[in-house]
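3.2 Worked example (two chains)
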Amino acid sequence: MQIREATSHDIEGMWSLFCGVRANGELRYSAKIGREEFSVQWFNRDLQTYVAEELPHLLGAYKLGVNFPGINSHVAAAYYLVHTAVRGRGVGRALIEHSISRAQDVGYLEMQFNYIPSTSQPTMTLYTELGFDIIETQPRAFTDRCGELCEAYVLQRFLQ
C-alpha cells in the first residue's frame, strides 16, 4: 500500500469511495452532499489531501487542515474514508499515522476530532491505541442507524 498526495485525477475514485462508505450507513450526515460539494470539501487550498492505494485500487483517503481558523490554527483536524472491502487490513491505521506525521511536519501542536459517534467501537479503539483521549462527551448528539440518540466524542492528541 502506498499513501500519496491526491491529485485531480483521484476525484472520481474518491467520490466513489465516499459514496460506498455513505451507502454503508456510516456517513449519515452526508445524504445531500453531491459530487461538486464533495470536491470542494476535499480539494481546496486550505487542505492537504492524500490517498492510499494498491494499484489499481483506491483503498482510502484523508484530508488534513486547520480545525478552526484563527486562534485555533495550531490545531489540526483530519477526516478519513476507508473502502468497506478493506476494513481490518490496517488501512485506517496507516492513514491516521500518516496524517499525524504530516500534521507534525507542518507544525500543528495537536489534532482534534470533533464528532466521533460512541457507537463506532472499532474507530474509538484505533484512536485510543494511537494516543487520542476523549476530552468531551456530547450527550444525545448522534442518531444511529436505528434512530436512537447516542453520545458523540471530541478527541484530542498533542503532537509536539
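3.2.1 Second chain
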Amino acid sequence: MSPTLLVLVIASVLLVITNLPRWDRKASYRDADHKGVVVYWRPGCKYCMKLRTRLRFTRLRYSEVNIWGDPEAAAFVRSVADGNETVPTVTVAGKAMVNPSKGRLLEAVRTHAPHLTPGAGRAAGERD
C-alpha cells in the first residue's frame, strides 16, 4: 500500500469515527442535562468534529445532541443563533455559545458550572 493511500485510509477512518455520536454522551434535547454542558452538533460539520474531538481528550462531562435527528434541538439552536442552525452550539448551565473554541468552552465551565470542571470536588493534593 502506498503512503498516500495509507494516509487517505487513515483520514477516512478518523472522519467516520469523529462523526459518530459517543454512546455514553448521546442525548435528545429533552433528555440532556441543561444544568450541565450540552454540545449541539450535526454530521459532516468540520467545526463540530474539531470541537468534539478536542473535548474527548478532556474529562469534562457533557451531552451531545444531533440537531438533524432532533427537531427540538434544531429549533433551540436557531433560537440562539439568529435563526440559523449554526453548530457547534454549546450550552453551559443554560448559557449558549455559538461555535466556541475549546478554551472558551472550558472557561465558561469554570465560570458558570465549576462543579463540572475535571477534578472538581477533590481534596487538595489528591490525584487521578
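3.3 Remarks
The chain has one domain: 25-118.
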